[in-house]
Amino acid sequence: MSEGLIRPAVADDVPAMNAIYNEYIVDSHVSFDTEPWTDDERHAWFRRRIDAGFPILVAEVDGKVVGVAWSGPWRDKAAYRGSAETTVVLAPDATGVGIGTRLLDALLEHLGASGFHVAIAIIALPNDPSIAAHRKLGYREVGVLHEIGFKDGSFHDTMIMERQLRS
Ligand SMILES: CC(C)(COP(=O)(O)OP(=O)(O)OC[C@H]1O[C@@H](n2cnc3c(N)ncnc32)[C@H](O)[C@@H]1OP(=O)(O)O)[C@@H](O)C(=O)NCCC(=O)NCCS
Questions:
Q1: Distance (Å, rounded) from C-alpha 101 to C-alpha 156?
Q2: Which fold has domain 5-120?
Q3: pTM for the predicted model, two decimal places
Q4: Assuming Cys at both sites, which of 9, 33, 55, 67 could form a disulfide with 25, CB separation 3.0 to 4.6 Å?
């Protein structure tokens, strides 16, 4: 797979982004959602995130969206306004060739440029590739929340990782 292009997402990317993320909702513990989203729901979500100033980027290879990295609010109290939660997911056949790291790195650049102060990732365990990608970009392991999610008949832990930004 070629290196591809990383760029800000536009509304036309929403169905592809939604299809990629829905696969992880349905087939894995990676997402703690339990039901896939409709494209309409994801469109409304996309508009809210963009209007609130949270960067969302996609990776495109040969004209096709193969991955997405998005940011969103960490918590809704005002003092958290400089903090953003980050998420990155790739289509399964796009993993393992560096696209996820590049996508997340670009998202961190955008967050820094937008004035955010801290990025936080919540990683459902186990997920060694995700932990490795986040570590590589300077995220630090804060700790593990034990049995915090219940999906597909079992409890799952999450790791919290944080990354300071420039501003
Ligand atoms: C997690 C994910 C975004 C990482 O992106 P990626 O493009 O596959 O990862 P990269 O190719 O950039 O590799 C990142 C690092 O992880 C390492 N890595 C890959 N697989 C690994 C594994 N099974 N165990 C440990 N490290 C691993 C790589 O070696 C690489 O480090 P290196 O460049 O120093 O060798 C991607 O694999 C993905 O979308 N996975 C499924 C969805 C998911 O889990 N998303 C994260 C939700 S928190």
A1: 24
A2: Aminopeptidase (3.40.630)
A3: 0.96
A4: 33
